[in-house]
Amino acid sequence: MDLAARLRAAGCVFAEEEAAIMSAQARSPADLERLVAHREAGAPLEYVVGWAQFAGLRIAVGPGVFIPRRRSESLLETAVARVPEGATVLDLCCGAGALAAAILARHPATRMWACDADPAAASWARHNLPASAVVAVGDLFAALPADMRGGFDVIVANAPYVPSAALALLPAQTRHEPVMGLDGGPDGLRLHRRIAAQARNWLRPGGALLVEVTTAEAPVLADEFEAHGLAATIAVDAGRDVAVVTGESLPIS
């Protein structure tokens, strides 16, 4: 049985593409067999080959870190349009650092910070980001030094937003990813409320918080933004089936 047929039999929808990626990645026939067997056992392709494609970049990933999704390129595109030259940017809940890396690829002069509550994720982010980026570990903004309060032009956050009850409905391969990178609590917005409540303290006047959520969650999150002094707008990307909620920091009256 050829590789694509084996992968198709294992339930891989894009079997031909995956077979081509693994064939290009393998160092020998034995290594290719190892990769295919790993995929047949249900491991995500990104873990098998050691990287995820995101916005034209290869982001190194492995077991224990959330795999960047292509739909998050909508958040990236919205953020890139808001980043001024020489901006200070925070990738909050950074995971492997895909958003931070892609922003830097487009705005190399950006002063980049990234943080995650999971030390394993932060380790992957350090691998994917240049030494000039600061990667911190901690619970949301608690990971940052106090002197960065009011210092960010843009904060991007791809915090987990899958409602807890919906985790069981996700594709089987997501079970290989860390639950903390997927579980958004009862309504998917557990962390987002905390982010909205604190973000204004960390943004410069006129700065912006940008967050990825589902289209159903977006209006609820926009209300949270407004309640905490952030002027909210929603951009729906129907093609990627995702929404980006932007909250602009208003002057403190």
As a percent range, the share of helical residues equals 25-40%
The stretches of 5 or more residues where confidence is low (pLDDT under 50) are none
State the end-to-end distance: 69 Å
Order of helices and strands: HHHHEEHEHEHEEHEHEE
Morphology call: globular
Q: Mean pLDDT, as a whole number?
A: 95
Instruction: Tell me about the largest β-sheet.
Output: 7 strands, mixed
Strand count: 9
Name the strands of the widest sheet in spatial order: 5-4-3-6-7-9-8
Would you tell me the structural class of the helices and strands?
A: alpha/beta
Radius of gyration: 19 Å
Strand content: 15-25%
Question: What is the tally of helical segments?
Answer: 9
Commentary on this structure:
This protein has 253 residues and is of the alpha/beta class. The chain is built from nine helices and nine strands. Helix 5 (73-82) crosses helix 6. It starts with a helix and ends with a strand. The relative contact order is 0.12.
